[in-house]
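As a point of orientation, let us examine one representative protein, giving the amino acid sequence and backbone structure tokens.
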Amino acid sequence: MKGKCLSVAILLFFLAGCSKASPSLAEKPLTIGFCIDSLVLERWQKDLDAFTAEAEKLGAKVEARNANGDLELQVNQANELINNDSISAIVILPIDGSKFSEIIAKAKSRDKIVIAYDRLILNSAIDAFISFDTENIAPYMMRELEKVAPKGNYLLIGGSLLDNNMKLIAEGIHRELEENENIQLLDEVYCDNWSSISAYRQLSAILGENRDAKIDAVVCGNDSLAVGAIRALSEYRLAGRVAVSGQDADLESCQRIIEGTQTMTIYKPVDLLGKKAAQVAVGLAQGFAPEGGQRWTENGYDILRCTIPIEVVTKLNMRDVIIESGFHREEEVYMTGDG
């Protein structure tokens, strides 16, 4: 039932966001640029597909650019889109949100709408920020891990610290750890580009150096990192005996939750995030702000912020949240039938 309630809440949020968007969007053709970090992670392709489908439904064309995790390339791609007179709005999923202030200033000088997608672009006059409820990710992770491992040694494997979301998650995890005197943080490492291979190598090294220390939980910043961590744990015959967190509800991690080697993940309805971003981009380019957001001040800049809810996923609610939402198919998650 909890999964169904979340679905209703998201639907209401989504409907509120598009209530004024549809009637006037086809007044003139629009082209929207989308600068995406990379398409290596499973979820980013879903985001781009959802964004593109909704934008086209609203009568806009999408010019997408994939930086493949290369910051210099992404900056050049953003410049290219800004210099394109046919583009009215630019959506950016930044590799490093602190490196775009000059780009945003240039975009605004050319009267371009700029929207930060999922990750905040810092110290810049962006028009909107569309993201998930990032502030609750760390508490959700720790709550589930502490159910399995209420005391003992924890490890933290984070993603790229260029990603402002990872900084927020890491700060939240440290706050949670400080409130539980029965938990010790044995070590923490970070992985460029959220690399699963880096997570595997770094955890393997930690496990090799701490053979006498019992590891009770590994806090992984996302599901890609969890995959690497579980691979390392498996080699030390610890998979399923050590609690492991994640986020994004990637298919492989949902499968691992069912098999018992991953404790939890976080469901983020990326299709609605992509749709919402497209609605906001098209709406702002048409001269009005869609409903469903709040005004928000960041370092003196007034920004429209739209936040979509997230939900914890465990073995107990996998069907309610993941299967019933259509995020993954039952035969895929439970690995039954032909898949």
